[in-house]
Amino acid sequence: MYERFFNLRERPFDLTSNPRYLVLTDSHREAMATIEYGIASRKGITLLIGEAGAGKTTVIRAAIERQPARAYCIHLHNPALTRPEFIEMLAAQFDLSQQARLSKAALLLELEALLRCRHQAKETTVLVVDEAQSLPLSLLEEIRLLANIETDDEKLLCVVLAGQPELARRLDDPLLSQLKQRVAMWCELRPLTLEETAAYMLARIRCADGVAAQLFSGEAVTLIHEAAKGIPRIINVIADNALMTGFALQQRPVTSQIVHDVCRDFHISQQLDAVQTPEAKYPFDEPRPW
To answer: Taking the CA of residue 5 as centre, how many other CA atoms within 13 Å lie in the half-sphere pointing to its CB?
Structure first.
């Protein structure tokens, strides 16, 4: 809706996990390299920790797309499943028989046969489990057993567990010690710094063929960072709605006041009233990207 007003090819701050819009900070590069290596070397379980909205799904998809060999990816987004529902979901995602959807034994037999066939064809199978911090103990145990499917030399199923920091704390539970012992790779996504937020927004705007200085003032960028606390998803929400408001007001570039109003409407960051937006520090020293 606002694309033409801001001279954009498309909306730069949509919430879809599009790898084309992946902006790599140091922690993102490290996380993606860790996941890439964990999958390519068939390490078994790779753990990715990050706050909600930190970019975990985007990093995982980018790492899988960069695999040198063909990779099949099964992505489980909903942790609120019973054990029978989990078995049914796996069987459906792996396109196994109806019997495998009803019987764990049939599931394991068919799944192992499928994984061995793909292994012989030099293909990789990846199981990504999102929001893993919310998985019940029974399903975490099922995932541990799935990760045990292997040849004499390597794992047949690569598992990526992605979750919020609570997941790391849960793994300290003695009941999960066997699962923790099988975590071969561990990486974490931290919130963006102010400079990284500015670079992140700049890169996404350029990807949409926009000119950053025509979209946001420097003070607006600083306030977006403060409100979002460096979390990319929240940055996207604020920036997208600020552009919509700027379009409605025919205001270009978006000012800190517009950002402040958007944050107030969304009840984002109750500390904004303490931020002196007109005098906010510019994200970068000279030369400025804005």
So the answer is: 15
For tokens 């045990």, the residue is 148
Q: Check if the beta carbon of residue 233 is closer than 8 Å to that of residue 242.
A: no
CB atoms inside a 10 Å sphere around CB 270: 10
- Phi and psi of 157, rounded to 5°? -125, 120
Backbone CA torsion sign across 39, 58, 20, 118: positive
User: Given this model, what pLDDT does residue 288 score?
Assistant: 52
Note the pLDDT of residue 290: 57
pTM: 0.83
Which one-letter DSSP state was computed for residue 252?
S
Kind and range of the H or E run holding 46: strand 45-50
d(CA 194, CA 30): 19
Q: What is the mean pLDDT of residues 46-70?
A: 91
Round to whole Å and give the CA distance between 162 and 188: 10
Type and span of the H or E element at 61: helix 56-65
